[in-house]
Design a protein that fits this description.
about 200 residues; mainly alpha; elongated
Length: about 200
């Protein structure tokens, strides 16, 4: 029975370690919970642990990847943005918590944090609280979803899921293409599409 929880951990890890917006990790946790009739609280704890490890690893390798892909100016801009965000103290934690509670992929949050060289400890505690709450609700609603499989499949292509994906992509584009120095220092908005090396 322990190997089934290992699948939950591995699935959540894989969904949250990739640098592209994947569906939320609970979308792999729920089917495994239903398929193997697992304890929903154990699935939540193990799945959230996998998600946190995945996001932690993401924040560690993204700076290396961004140095190879993006121009130094873009990396410095995002680091500057990260510094500004971490100066906000509890307000930035509240933003992270609120964002983690939303049904949006958290990939843009961790891409920004990793590229900005924000220490994971400044992101993960608030993310953990939001992630645990949202995943616990999702996993406990898994039984309802399994009884309404047709509706659940329709929801995967619903306007809500497509909107979530589009918003995630817009957040990533904003992070990459907005000139953050100019916006934060001089209050001028400018897009720069020449960010690759």
């Amino acid at each position: 029975m322990w190997w089934q929880y290992l699948l939950v951990f591995a699935g959540a890890f894989v969904f949250d370690v990739v640098p592209i917006p994947f569906p939320p990790a609970f979308s792999v946790m729920i089917p495994l919970q239903i398929m193997y009739n697992l304890n929903p609280w154990a699935v939540t704890v193990v799945g959230v642990a996998g998600s946190i490890l995945g996001r932690y690893v993401l924040t560690l390798y993204i700076p290396l990847l961004s140095d190879k892909i993006f121009k130094p100016k873009k990396n410095k801009e995002v680091q500057f943005l990260g510094k500004k965000l971490t100066e906000k103290g509890w307000k930035s934690q509240a933003i992270i918590l609120g964002y983690s509670l939303l049904p949006l992929p958290t990939t843009p949050l961790f891409l920004a944090g990793g590229m900005a060289r924000i220490k994971p400890i400044q992101i993960i505690p608030a993310f953990f609280i939001g992630k645990f709450i949202s995943d616990a609700v999702a996993v406990h609603l898994g039984k309802f979803a399994s009884e309404n499989v047709g509706d659940t499949m329709n929801q995967l292509l619903s306007w809500k899921s497509i909107t979530g994906l589009v918003l995630s992509l817009l957040f990533i584009c904003a992070l990459l293409f907005i000139d953050w120095f100019l916006l934060l220092e001089k209050k001028q908005f400018k897009l720069n599409f020449r960010i690759l090396k």
